[in-house]
Amino acid sequence: MMSIGWSRESATPNVSLPDFREIRVDCGRCARQTFLGENLFVDSIYRENILEHSKHPQNKGHLDPYDYAFEDTNPLCGDEIRIELRVDDAGVIIDVAFDGQGCAISQASASMLTEMILGMSVEDVKAMPKDDLLDEVGIELSPARLKCALLSFNVLKASLYGKSVDEELHS
Question: Which residues contact 168 (CB under 8 A, 6 or more apart)?
């Protein structure tokens, strides 16, 4: 039997679930999410990570000078992303910046992507599959939101290849 109870000594709910150990959470919202299942609770953590990257993006700004740069727009929603890279003589990304505007997903995924690639070689980034970024985002996305999440990935690849990703895929 599932139950949620509140202790008079604190504002912390006690949650008992049939398939999980007793979980103590800090607010009623979290209790409801935990009550609905572990996957929703995990999704909540990923959503909070997306909101954090959206509100406080990493590596947002511009580089001067830069070695690679590209910008593009998602025509479905108007999201815009520009990525600039600085690479050392060994082909390792030593600095990265992005700028743009758009929804929380596009801005957060750009922030996450810049953190992922810093210190990687250009060749490793060229070989990186989109699933690496999607795993970092961590939640299921609708087809429209998938385009938002992958805008920064496509811009990154285009900057490294010096042309649009569609041209690269069809050549």
Answer: 157, 158, 161
pLDDT digits (tens, 9 = 90+) for 42-52: 455 446 666 67
pLDDT, tens digit (0-9, with 9 covering 90-100), for 52-87: 756 778 889 999 999 999 999 998 889 999 999 999
Burial 130-145 (b: 16+ CB within 10 A, else e): eeebbebbebebeeeb
Q: Considering the domain 68-169 in this protein, what is its CATH number?
A: 3.90.1010.10
Whether 150 shows a pLDDT value over 70: the answer reads yes
Q: What gap in Å lies between CA 15 and CA 33, rounded to an integer?
A: 11
Sole residue written with tokens 């599932």: 2
Give residue limits of the domains in the chain: 1-37, 68-169
pTM of the predicted model as reported, rounded to 2 decimal places: 0.68
The answer for residues whose C-beta is within 8 angstroms of residue 14's C-beta and 6 or more apart is 4, 5, 6, 7, 22, 24
